[in-house]
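[recover] target loaded
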């Protein structure tokens, strides 16, 4: 069979931080950066993976070999193979070569882009067709069970369901996805702090436990079911109160933003994004001094409506909502001032909201 190329984008979380595993709401988007996987089936019983992470790395494993977690990038594609097999789909030998313009560990979900580019490629090569939401669930299972990161489904949904000039509104309880038109007079600046995050390192799983403990104290199944009023009326240890305040506040901000986008009130959306960052900093404690500096510089820059950390936190990138006309100048000035003050190089990606994963040929 001739070779197939798939593309899976990274994503930006616009609002709704750490809400997914709390069965809450998220507003996200696919971005025009991602991972291309090119591959074909093999009849020699070998899975041959290669990627260009600095230099080219090659890796081969027998197609019927049991999954062994190696703690490296191959866990992502081999985890997808494992999840497909668990679902009863036969996956034999194949080749996949990955090329990326998405920085890993920057909070833009290169991990989901690895998984989604793999599953879209295999779907095409194997001649099967699964609903998008099933693909997202299988990729999530790959990351949860095979890689060992207890992420929610946000990243995979955002890579699969993107639509140009639209945000993705995800209700994580119902796994219901809607796309919402985004105003044209603004775009996004994704600014990497130059300090990668390390979610596999444990903070993510620890925050999950805090959230589940807070929900238990509040007497609700998940924080999705709690309101600010319930939180205010309940005695809770300080740490759990702050974790819960973040998640409950994020859910409320997402729902408000969906309405604001319909009326095109970008200034109000920007204010909610900045409020989200403040809550990350104070309540959820998933920000870092670098991200705080980037956000405060962005907020003080002409044309920027609001800014916040995006993704899991603990490093990575911020997202700023900026007037299209002012975007280039704003990005350059934030990066220059950040470098002057922190000594780190900030990489700025200006982008619009983009289409989700697709097969590029075949
Ligand atoms: P994020 O998803 O925010 O980028 P993660 O820590 O979840 O950060 O995922 C990053 C990991 O994904 C990398 O350490 C690597 O294992 C894998 N990865 C990302 N991009 C690539 C790539 N181009 N080739 C191979 N593996 C990649
Ligand atoms: Mg990730």
């Amino acid at each position: 069979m001739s070779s197939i190329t798939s593309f899976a984008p990274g994503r930006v979380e616009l609002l709704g931080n750490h809400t997914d595993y709390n069965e809450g709401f998220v507003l996200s988007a696919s971005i025009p950066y991602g991972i291309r996987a090119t591959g074909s089936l093999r009849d020699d019983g070998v899975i041959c993976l290669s990627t260009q992470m600095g230099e080219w790395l090659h890796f081969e494993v027998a197609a019927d070999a049991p999954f062994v977690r190696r703690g490296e990038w191959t866990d992502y594609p081999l985890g997808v193979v494992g999840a497909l097999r668990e679902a009863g789909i036969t996956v034999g030998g194949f080749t996949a070569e990955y090329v990326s313009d998405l920085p890993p560990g920057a909070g833009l979900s290169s991990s989901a882009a690895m998984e989604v580019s793999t599953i879209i490629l295999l779907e095409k090569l194997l001649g099967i067709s699964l609903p998008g939401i099933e693909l997202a669930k299988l990729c999530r299972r790959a990351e949860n069970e095979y890689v060992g990161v207890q992420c929610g489904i946000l990243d995979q949904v955002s890579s699969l369901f993107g639509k140009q000039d639209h945000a993705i509104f995800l209700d994580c309880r119902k796994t219901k996805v809607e796309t919402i038109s985004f105003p044209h007079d603004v775009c996004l600046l994704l600014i990497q702090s130059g300090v990668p995050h390390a979610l596999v390192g444990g903070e993510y799983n620890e925050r999950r436990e805090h959230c589940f403990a807070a929900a238990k104290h509040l007497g609700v199944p998940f924080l999705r079911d709690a309101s600010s009023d319930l939180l205010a009326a309940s005695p809770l240890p300080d740490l759990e109160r702050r974790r819960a305040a973040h998640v409950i506040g994020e859910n409320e901000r997402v729902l408000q933003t969906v309405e604001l986008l319909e009326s095109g009130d970008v200034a109000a959306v920007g204010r909610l994004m900045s409020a989200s960052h403040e809550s990350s900093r104070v309540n959820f404690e998933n920000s870092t001094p670098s991200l705080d500096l980037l956000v405060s510089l962005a907020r003080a820059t002409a044309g920027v409506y609001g800014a916040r950390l995006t993704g899991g936190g603990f490093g990575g990138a911020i997202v700023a909502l900026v007037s299209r006309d002012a975007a280039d100048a704003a990005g350059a000035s934030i990066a220059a001032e950040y470098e002057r003050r922190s000594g780190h190089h900030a990489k700025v990606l200006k982008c619009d909201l983009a289409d989700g994963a697709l097969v590029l040929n075949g």
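[recover] notes: The chain has two domains: 4-179, 182-351.
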